[in-house]
Design goal:
By secondary structure, the chain is α+β, with helices and mostly antiparallel strands. It has one domain: VC0467-like (3-Layer(aba) Sandwich), CATH 3.40.1740. Helix content is 19%, strand content 27%. The chain is built from six helices and ten strands; from the N terminus they run ββββαββββαβαβααα. Strands 1, 2, 3, 4, 5, 6, 7, 8, 9 and 10 form a ten-stranded mixed sheet that branches. The radius of gyration is 17 Å and the shape is globular.
Length: 226
């Protein structure tokens, strides 16, 4: 692992059996048949929210809300926003890494997705930027995956105004996310500050559905009849 990456093996997410990630949702497929990629429409979903449907069939994404941080004809990448890792907070992770943590707001580290679960990703406001490693997501949001952003989070004068730290991400190869959207695996909505950085993680899924006028009870009853 690159020494500049902010996470360690001691902080990885839940382990899966060998090969369990292959071809599953949120993990780019590396073999076998794949739905053909759709014709480019120019309407990519970077900066939008993905909402997992009850029929998703993957416990890692149950009632998950994700931000799409990158999307083009070749790939899609997203961070789960509402699955805290048990017993791991941002200050405690910084302590483990031997970094300054005094004054760092108490917040859980999130399970960001099943890909590269030993690697940390910080989604943050654009008042912080690390040249060469910060990637813009929207006009107001950026993503950084190097140690520089963790150093800044431990410094009151430099830390971004809003931030979250996640281990891992969800990724899709060409056409995979588009195929899942056509199959009704995900719904989408606009992002807002509460969905991105709010502390009520249990309510984010319901809140995201409400933004598009969808009732969780109706979804649950439809899934029960499927």
């Amino acid at each position: 692992m690159d020494k500049n990456r902010p996470a360690s093996a001691a902080t990885r997410g839940p382990e899966l059996p060998p090969g369990a990630d292959k071809g599953r949702r949120g993990v780019p497929s590396d073999g076998g048949q794949r739905d053909p990629a759709p014709e480019p429409s120019g309407e990519y979903l970077q900066g939008r929210i993905l909402i997992a449907m009850p029929s998703i069939g993957d416990p890692r994404f149950e009632r998950a809300v994700l931000l799409i941080c990158g999307h083009d004809e070749g790939h899609a990448m997203a961070i789960v926003l509402n699955h805290p890792l048990d017993g791991l907070s941002v200050p405690s992770l910084l302590d483990r890494l031997g970094m300054a943590s005094e004054g760092v707001p108490e917040a859980p580290v999130l399970f960001g997705g099943p890909v590269e679960r030993e690697r940390g990703y910080v989604l943050h406001s654009t008042d912080f930027s690390a040249p060469g490693s910060t990637v813009p997501v929207t006009d107001d949001l950026a993503l950084t995956d190097t140690r520089e952003v963790l150093d800044a989070m431990g410094d009151k004068a430099r830390r971004p105004r809003r931030s979250l730290l996640a281990l891992g991400y969800a990724g899709w190869g060409p056409g995979q996310l588009e195929s899942e959207l056509r199959q009704g695996v995900w719904l989408t909505c606009d992002a807002d500050d509460e969905l991105l950085f709010g502390a009520d993680y249990d309510a984010k899924w319901t809140r995201a559905l409400a933004k598009i006028g969808v009732s969780p009870e109706r979804l649950s009853s439809q899934a029960g009849r499927a």
